[in-house]
Amino acid sequence: MTAHEQFAEDLALYALGSLEGEAVVSLEQHLDECAACRQELARLQGDMALLALTTSGPAPPQRARQRLLKAIGHEPRSLRTVLMRRRWWTLAPVFASLVLAVFAIMLWRENASQRDRIVALKADAAHNQATFEEAKHLLALLTDPSAMHVTLVAAPSKPQPEGKAIYMPHNGALVFMASNLAPLAPEKTYELWLVPMHGDKPMPAGTFKPDPKGNAMVMMPPMTAGVEAKAFAVTIEPEGGSLTPTMPMVLVGS
């Protein structure tokens, strides 16, 4: 048996990575000295590489497959079993890559959904914080003792003149009080009138002039007893008064 024949079987095992122990040391020493065996080992390793590509790439040359299968056929059954197992395991990285890709896609989608939820929660938190700050400022304004409280009402209008008469028909006693009267022109006066119940002409009941604040009073003027009053009125008359009222009436009431 030649040296090449002695190491032929070991070359196939060595190419498969199944050679162990002292056989590996002896073969590697022989390979350092034998160019022919090195070439044969290179062919076996190239054939195995091409065979592995059949799972995902183009088919290797038919002669490479036959050469490798022939070398394997001379090995024990246990070696062929190891080779078949190794061929199955060449697909494991592909399956692992697919699983990792699917997992990465699922993880990316979950992360995107989580990011959307986080953005929505941040927006809600910002809105709630703004509402809380507004309520806090409002409460501080309402409870601060230094805050100015002002009540607004309708703009004041010029006070309207008014008068009140107290009259007793059976004895003719009369008291009249007025307020907010306008100032009079020179040589003018206010005059109070009693309008009888039974259609007689208005009866003069006294003249008067208001003070600077517009207040005036007629107290117990001479009146005819027993006259029922239908109404009282006030007019502006010439100084000294008149026997009949001058229109228009400034005040009237019944």
Structure description:
- The protein is 48% helix and 18% strand.
- With 254 residues, the protein is an alpha+beta fold.
- It folds into three domains: 3-89, no CATH class; 94-127; 162-253, Sandwich (Immunoglobulin-like), CATH 2.60.40.
- The chain has a four-stranded antiparallel β-sheet with strand order 4-3-6-7, with no helix packed on it. The chain has a three-stranded antiparallel β-sheet with strand order 1-2-5, with no helix packed on it.
- A hairpin with a 6-residue loop joins strand 3 and strand 4.
- Helix 2 (22-33) packs across helix 3 (35-52) and helix 3 packs across helix 4 (62-73).
- It is rod-shaped, with a radius of gyration of 64 Å.
Keywords, please?
254 residues; alpha+beta; Immunoglobulin-like; 3 domains; 4-stranded antiparallel sheet; 3-stranded antiparallel sheet; 6 helices; 7 strands; 48% helix
- What profile does the largest beta sheet have? 4 strands, antiparallel
Shape: rod-shaped
What's the overall average pLDDT, rounded? 79
Please count the beta strands (DSSP E, at least 2 residues each). Answer: 7
Low-confidence stretches: 75-89
What fraction of the residues are assigned to beta strands by DSSP? Answer: 15-25%
Read across the widest sheet, the strand sequence of neighbours is 4-3-6-7
What structural class do helix, strand and pairing data support? alpha+beta
CATH architecture call of the largest domain:
Sandwich
Q: What is the count of structural domains?
A: 3
Order of helices and strands: HHHHHHEEEEEEE
Distance, first to last CA: 157 Å
Rg calculated over all Cα atoms: 64 Å
CATH topology of the largest domain: Immunoglobulin-like
Top-tier CATH class of the largest domain: Mainly Beta
Total helical elements: 6
Helix content: 40-55%
